[in-house]
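Q: Hand in one record:
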Amino acid sequence: MTCTPMILAMNTFMNTTSLSNHSITQIIVDRFALFNPNIGCTCHYCIDKIINYCIVLDMPNKKEQKMEKTRADKPPVDPHREFLDMDTDEEDFGRQESPETVEELSSEPIKPVFDEQDLNTLVQYVKDLTVLPSIKNSDWSQDCHTIIREYFENPAYSLLSIYLNVEGALKVQLSVPEESHSGFVYFLRTPWHVFTVENFQATVVFGSINRDAMMCILKTMENMYVPVALNSGEWPEIIRNNLFRNLHNFLMCLTERVYKPMGLTKLYIPKEKLPEIAMSMDEKPSLSEENRQRVSEELDESEKALIERLEGIVRCWIRQIREVLTSTSANETRQIVFDELQYWTAIYFDLCCLHDQLSNEEIQSILRLLENVCSPSVDSFHLLTVQLHEGLEQAASIVTYLKVLSDACNDLKCPDEIEEPVTKIMLLILFIWTESSFYNIPSNIEILCQAVSAQVVQQCKEYVDLQALLEGDAENGITVLQKCISCCQTYRIVYDKVTSITASIKSNGDWSVNVRTVFNRVDTFTRRCYDVIEICNALIVFGRRNKVGMIGSAKGTQYEAYCRRIEDLFYENLDEIKLVRDDILDVAKSTWLENMQKFRDSIMELENMVKTLIDCIFEEVQNVEEGIEAIYALQRFKHRGSLCDTLSMKWVQVWKIFGEEIKHCNSSITLHKAYHPLFQYHMKDANLLCITRYLERLFHMMIDASDWIGDCIAEKHILEQYKRVITVIDNKKSHNKS
């Protein structure tokens, strides 16, 4: 949300140059905090605006040099007079009093003209005052010199920044750098102040900002500007209170913004001097309620304003402490056990720092002062102090237990070694459940169990090399995935076995842990493993084969091209899986379900294409040999359920062809053919011998193929038919011999 009063105040600050005589503190007062007594916004947008202005507009306490053409006859403006004369109505806030002022501000003074020697001297001044790590004269490029010269030749630029970029090259620009990871050196001036060789060293404002710009600004404000502002008596009493209140609000928000990302709670301590009444009340700690009320009523306006400001600061302390205490009771899952340990270690460290801050003498003095004037915030603060001490003891206990549990989890080596270490871990969890006042609550102990589940899943996930698996190592990948699935199943068995004794360990305890929640990650990971196994099986079936020309018949070349087309389509879908392989075993991402369903749909289309191919091939199969060769060429498709059924039907078709051959041979035996009397005996024996050897060859081919193709429903009947024909042939041979 944009704060209009804040923006108007800042814009007026930028457009007004008559306060160049004042220090930065006076500028903050006259051009920011005092334009409207109601300006006290502490949102992040306003903080960012103030911080940027504090960096760029740090004006020197020197009189601004006027440009002769535009300001020679203009008298200086009294800042307090300007403040009293301005219209403070919120509707017209920030409006200039007259169009002439706008016209004056919009006019641009004439740029100065330097001779080459003076300009080179000013450039050298900048180079001499620049302190950056390991810079040499050779680092100053021609671009750097050009920009520095532009800074002096064009007084409209207020800021000059010099820094090292990511590559370590020296850079110069006329604004705040965005890529200065190691900080930067800056040179400042008031707008349109002209630097000369004579006045540069006396009027320049320069310094450095390290890589932590926010911290740098905070320390500069706390240790330089704030003491000057608080100890100055230049402002009327009517504006002093608003100034101090806004200044405290700004520093409270800035302090929190600097330290909160570090995981620390820093209490802002004002540097205001407590009034003499605070000392007198410190000497009488046992004031009655009536005396406290009387003392509160006897305070003058400035002291009451101080009390009000201190109450606002204490309320901020109360909010910060409550936030820390709330984090100690949050029951959120934080991945593995080590993450849980880190989380509570950070909380414990934060509580320790906060506890140490409460013993600060300045904080205690503020609390005593507010207590003696019956401040309602003090009681809440003391109550939170007690809760803080209890939370510190609890956090210390939790860290101790988690350290032991984390050490046990380090011995977990999934999926190779699971049963013994996970049994030890579960027994430790039972021990923590019985001993810890925090983890005896079902929701909290459930978090520990979920953390163990996450530990098992993470180690199994690291064990699987998805890249190698998707590149073609499918058989080995299936073995690894099955091992992970077995590991997860063992973990669940151990969990059920250990938790079954909770009632006998702690009769009054309540182990109401949601098993489904505990194993949510494990179950999801197991399903993902099955998905990858499905992909591996598809890779085995539809993956490329190096052998070409395995499919016979006159159309063998066409069939081979069709097979290659199926393989290419499969790898197009597999490439899409490779693009999201990082999401496959990431149980926190549900987008994988959509990708897997899309892959399954594509495999179904490929199966239909293979069925069409099989039907076309077997339409041309005329004998047993062609049928067996075709099935052998297509045998990789038997690993798919639907394709296996199709090939089984074609195998039945081959057996039926064998049965037709048997019938044909049987018919040839029973037919009576007329032979020449001289050759009749020999011709009958030769005919029977050929039929016998032909049938035996087909029989052995079918039996051998059955070893790798499998049996079928027609096999038994056709084999009985084969035996009957062979018996008939043997009988005829015996009859001919006799």
